[in-house]
Structure formats: C-alpha cells, structure tokens
UniProtKB/TrEMBL annotation, chain A:
Residue span(s) of domain 4Fe-4S ferredoxin-type: 229-261, 309-338
Organism name: Desulfocicer vacuolatum DSM 3385
Lineage of origin: Bacteria, Pseudomonadati, Thermodesulfobacteriota, Desulfobacteria, Desulfobacterales
Entries under PANTHER family matching the protein: ANAEROBIC SULFITE REDUCTASE SUBUNIT A
Gene Ontology molecular function: iron-sulfur cluster binding; metal ion binding
Recorded coiled-coil stretches: 189-216
Name of the protein this chain belongs to: 4Fe-4S dicluster containing protein
Keywords: Coiled coil, Iron, Iron-sulfur, Metal-binding
UniProtKB/TrEMBL annotation, chain B:
Needed cofactors: [2Fe-2S] cluster
Co-factor note (free text): Binds 1 [2Fe-2S] cluster per subunit.
Gene3D superfamilies linked to this entry: Dihydroorotate dehydrogenase, electron transfer subunit, Nucleotide-binding domain of ferredoxin-NADP reductase (FNR) module, Translation factors
CDD domains documented for this protein: sulfite_reductase_like
UniProt KW keywords: 2Fe-2S, Electron transport, FAD, Flavoprotein, Iron, Iron-sulfur, Metal-binding, Transport
Positions with a binding annotation for [2Fe-2S] cluster: C247, C252, C255, C263
Lineage top rank: taxon: Bacteria
The protein's name in its UniProt record: NAD(P)H-flavin reductase
Source organism of this protein record: Desulfocicer vacuolatum DSM 3385
Length: 349, 281
C-alpha cells in the first residue's frame, strides 16, 4: 500500500489543482458551528475540527434532495410525467472526513445498495465521491469508536487516509479512486520507513487515548424480543423530549420522507431526512399509530442501531461511536450507557 | 440505472363508486407504455404505489388478478391528501404507478391445499385478486376447497357486490357473506361479525388447510382465537399487514416491525413469523 508524504505548504496548492477536476467538500465554519459543505473557490477545509456538529452524510445524502420533477400544465405533451431531477454527479471529493464518519457511510451503503434495488441518487453520489479521510490524532472525550468496530485511524470506507504529522500529512492510498485523486493533486513523494513508523505510533497513541469502553459482545446472542420487552425502556426514554437531534446529527441515520412541492405548474418530488423520534413517522391514515408512545420511539432508535441492524446484516452495530448524539442530546441520553445496559440485560425468568 | 422511484405513467380508464357512502372508489388504470405493463408483472397479494404528481404517493393493494390482462385495478378509501386528490380525478387523467411491491400470498405453498379466505371492510382488495386468480380455469385445479368469509358493516358497504353474488352461485367456492347489521328483510345471507361467522362456517383445520386473513386490526384480533379454536396452527394463518410507507422498496425506514420491513419482507406474514417480531403494527 502506497503512502505519500505531503508538505503542509504544498497542501493548499495541491487542493487548488484538484479543484479543477473535483468539486471539493470539507469542514467549514458556518455561523457558530462546523459542518461539511461544498468548498467555495479559495475556501480551505478546516483540518483541525474533530467532530462537526452534523456528520458528512449530507455529501451523499443531502438533507433535502430533488428526486423528480414534472409539469402539471395539461397543454404540454409530457404533463404529469415524472422525470429524474437534473443533478450534478461529476467527480467530487470529501476532504477531512473522519474515519468513524467514513465507516458510517460504508454501513449506510448496505441500505441503499441492495441486491433488489439500488437507490440511484445515493449510489450515483457515492460513486462520484472520493473520500479523503483524516485520522483523529487527539480523540474527543465523546469518541468511543474503538468499541464500535471503527477507530481513530480506521480505513473502512475511505479512499485515502491522511495523518496529520504536524509539518505535513502522510497519505495512505487505499483505493484506485484515492490514487487518482492524489495524482490529480500532484502529490507523489513517497514516505520513508521512518514516517511509517511515526504514523504507527500516532495510531497507537490515539487508540489508547480513547478510554470509554462500550460493551457490545453479547448483543448478537441476546433475544430480540427479550430486549424489546425489557423493563428499562421507560427509564431510558423518561427524559427524552423527542426533539430528533440525535437522528439528525447521527452519521448512520438514513430514514427519509418523500414529499411533493408545487409552484405554479411545476412540481418537484423531494426527499428529506426524517426521524423515528416523530410520531408522524409511523402514523397511519386511519389515525392508528404503531409507535405512538415516546418510549416506543426511543426504543426503536436504540433497537434499530444496536440489535435489528446487527441481526439483519451481521456487520456489527449501526453505531460508529462518533459521540455526536451524546454531545448534542439536550437531556443527556447516552447511547454508551444504553448499549451497556442492553448488552448486560438478562430477562427475569 | 433503473430508478425504483420512477412511476410508470398510467391513464385512469374507469372510476366506479364502490360503496354506498361513496368513501371508496375503484380505479382502473391502463399503462401508457405497453412495455411498462409487461414489466408490472404482479402476483396476488402484492401492492403498488399510486403516484399523483404534486400530491404524493400511497401504498395500495392490487385488486386485479394477474390473470386479468390489459389493466390494473385498485379500490381506494378516501382518507388523506393523496386519496382525496385521487377521488377528485376523472377518467382520462394521467398519473403514475410504482410497483409491484412486497411479497405475495404463498401460492407455491398453497398449491393443492384448501383455503379459507377471511376479509373485513375495505381490506378485501388483494383477497379479490386472489379469488379471481384461483377461480381462473387455468388455476382452479391447483387448489382444494375454497371458503370465503367476507363481512362489512352493511350490504351497501360490501366491495365488488356483483362478483360476490356471482361467486355465491358457483359450486367450486363456498361463500359466507355477512354484514354487521341489516334491516332489509330480503337480505339472504349472514348477519354477524366476521369472527363469529368464521367460528360457525369456516372449515375445521387439517394439515392441508390454510387461512388468509385481511381486515381491520380489531377484526384480526378477534378472528385469531376463532381460527385457533378450529385448530389452525400459527403457520397456517396467513395475514397481510400495512404500515406507513414512503419508498416501498425497503429504504426509507419507517414501516419496520423489528427487523422486518412491511414493504419488502411483507406485507404477507404468517402468524408464526409475526410471533417472532415485536408486533409494532
């Protein structure tokens, strides 16, 4: 596997060269907070921020996305016939995505790219994207990614893994897409054995800096129905105000709504992020609601992430340990605690 | 790439008021493109998304049988934005259909078996498709006895009335039509709730008899003990469910019952399957 060394004073120039062939996304400050957004000309990604408020899932799964359009003007021959919205899927690169977020996109792919159907919007965006990740040298206090089959230097889902070496980056090239991006940016100086050793040391130090240990090893064997009927859900949900923040900041929450919006004779079918915290999410036309109670919705979120997904795909939990929901929850509901409680649960016989 | 969100364009060819209170209408659609009709190759029990540009989409069971060619039929209860818009549409209007979606009644398992079909209210649509399918001369020999228990609030609320009364006359299907109440002295059929009629009229279970149940939650709830008292095992009780849906292809995440998705793993489940789920439906 090729590792390239990039001087920081050549970094900006390289990115500018790459911009001619790729649309770049990266962490930037918008008002008070950092988010992933398309980089404007001359705008540089902020490579210091560890966890943006929102995850970069929006780079392949926008919060609002046009699916189709149609004209309702009956004098037009194509009236009421839907056409796919015109979206730009030219090459793009997400710079500075953190390993747990790339791992999350890899997990979400299981939902959108299946043997029965490929979601063309998600898949086209994913196919067009090169993920240039940035290892986490100094994990935040909320980071528990090492418990969740990821980690500060995890390579899953990435095309390139950058490691900040202070004066420069080491770039571990992981896929042909990553190789093409580095070549396009003009980065080609091979790293030395000493560099690689230093990188290994940084990796070890970062992994050791994560002290939160979340237990998941029993989840697979636990009975789905036992966990669903466990007595602790009312306690877990007690303080929840169903604001949905956890679902919006989560890099693996993919649920969406589809809505039509019409202006004049032009109609557009959109999809928007949705949230299982909302009672409307499951409300039937009859008024019946299978998850009408708050506890049912809170349970759904944790059970989906930590049990249903695990049982369905056998690819680990649907949590990557980024810690965003822990940090953002206004009432301090903590998935780390819930996961430990689920993992330790033994039903009363 | 094939776009599973793209509806097939269809034209409304016929609209029929289905019940006396006018809350249900039956719509017959034809595909604008013949190749779309060929691609829309469904089995009885599946559903589709009816798609009205500018309004949205709704999942509705397919009421026409795969043996009926040249059109597809849906009976729709007026209840929300899309169904109200649909009820206000006219013959000749253009809209869309996505599908067919979901699984179907397990026709391979049911080959050579006796069947009792139990329906209530307006949940008789995919059951109608199933009966038409089984009564088709090419298929009838593939099944043993067919019993049907179908009930509605009143005679005027029964769907597909003409067909029901024609099936009554046949000797290769045992119809048990019922209404909750009726003050018409000429009513020649049953009066009583569906679970009661099931207990009185449905055949006792043996290993070659299966029940298909489709109806409002309250009917399903009380039909289950009736079937169990007749000896039906959980693997012999087949049910069709509904949950709120958007995509219909297993991606949008809202119709799950535990790890099963009603749109993709369902809508048809045996009671045995459902007993393994958290039953959030």
């Amino acid at each position: 596997m090729k590792v390239i060394k990039i001087d920081k004073n050549k970094w900006t120039k390289g990115l500018d060269t790459a911009r001619e062939s790729y649309q770049l996304f990266g962490p930037v400050k918008i008002k008070e907070n950092h988010c992933f957004a398309p980089l404007k000309r001359d705008q540089q990604p902020d490579m210091t921020v560890v966890d943006t408020v929102l995850s970069p899932k929006s780079t392949v799964f926008p919060q609002t996305e046009k699916l189709m359009t149609a004209t309702l003007d009956t004098s037009k021959p194509n009236h009421h016939l839907m056409e796919r919205a015109d979206t730009d899927y030219s090459p793009r690169a997400v710079i500075g995505i953190r390993p747990f977020d790339a791992r999350a996109i890899d997990l979400v792919k299981l939902n959108f790219d299946t043997k029965d159907h490929r979601d063309p919007y998600w898949c086209d965006a994913h196919d067009a994207t090169t993920f240039v990740g940035l290892a986490v040298n100094t994990p935040s206090q909320f980071d528990f990614s090492t418990s969740m089959d990821s980690g500060p230097f995890d390579e899953k889902g990435l095309d390139v893994l950058l490691v900040d070496m202070d004066t420069g980056y080491l770039a571990k090239i992981l896929t042909p897409k990553g190789e093409a991006f580095m070549a396009c940016a003009g980065f080609n100086r091979e790293a030395t054995a000493g560099d690689l050793q230093k990188m290994e040391e940084l990796k070890k130090a970062a992994e050791q800096a994560i002290t939160t240990q979340v237990e998941t090893d029993n989840l697979r064997e636990k009975s789905l129905l036992d966990l669903h009927q466990a007595p602790f859900w009312d306690d877990v949900a007690f303080s929840c105000i169903n604001c949905g923040t956890c679902t919006f900041v989560c890099p693996t929450c993919w649920c969406f709504d589809i809505q039509d919006e019409t202006k004049g004779n032009n109609t557009t079918r959109f999809r928007n992020w949705d949230s299982c915290m909302s009672p409307l999410f499951t409300l039937h036309g009859s008024g019946h609601n299978p998850r009408g109670e708050k506890t049912q919705r809170v349970r759904q979120r944790f059970m989906h992430k930590l049990k249903y997904f695990l049982d369905k795909y056998d690819q680990g939990t649907m949590c990557v340990g980024c810690g965003r929901c822990v940090k953002s929850c206004p009432v301090n509901i903590d998935i780390r605690e819930v996961c430990n409680v689920m993992n330790a649960y033994e039903p009363q016989k | 790439m094939n776009n599973p969100y793209m509806p097939y364009p269809v034209r409304i060819d016929d609209i029929e008021v289905a019940t006396e209170d006018r809350s249900l209408k039956t719509f017959t659609f034809t595909f604008l493109n013949p190749e779309d009709e060929a691609a829309f190759d469904h089995k009885a029990g599946q559903f589709a998304m009816l798609s009205i540009p500018g309004k949205g989409e709704i999942p509705i069971g397919i009421a026409s049988s795969p043996t009926e060619k040249g059109f597809v039929k849906f009976t729709v209860f007026r209840t929300g934005v899309v169904t109200t818009a649909l009820h206000n549409m006219a013959v000749g209007d253009i809209m869309g259909i996505r599908g067919p979606m979901g699984n179907w009644y397990p026709w391979e398992t049911l080959k050579g078996k006796n069947l009792v079909i139990i329906g209530g209210g307006f949940a008789f649509t995919t059951l109608r498709a199933s009966i038409v399918y089984m009564l088709d001369p090419a298929n009838r020999d593939n099944f043993g006895n067919i019993d049907v228990v179908y009930g509605a609030r009143s005679p005027g609320m029964l769907l597909y009335r003409e067909e029901l009364f024609e099936w009554e006359k046949r000797d290769d299907i045992n119809m048990h039509i019922t209404v909750d109440g009726c003050d018409d002295p000429s009513w020649a059929y049953n009066v009583g709730f569906v679970p009661t009629i099931v207990e009185q009229k449905a055949p006792k279970a043996d290993e070659d008899t299966f029940a298909i149940v489709c109806g409002p939650p309250i009917m399903i709830k009380f039909t289950q003990p009736a079937l169990q008292s007749l000896g039906y095992g959980d693997n012999q009780i087949i049910m069709s469910l509904e949950n709120r849906m958007k995509c219909g292809i297993g991606m949008c995440g809202r119709c799950n019952i535990g790890k099963e998705l009603v749109c993709k793993d369902g809508p048809v489940f045996t009671l045995e399957d459902l007993n393994k789920t958290p039953r959030e439906y």
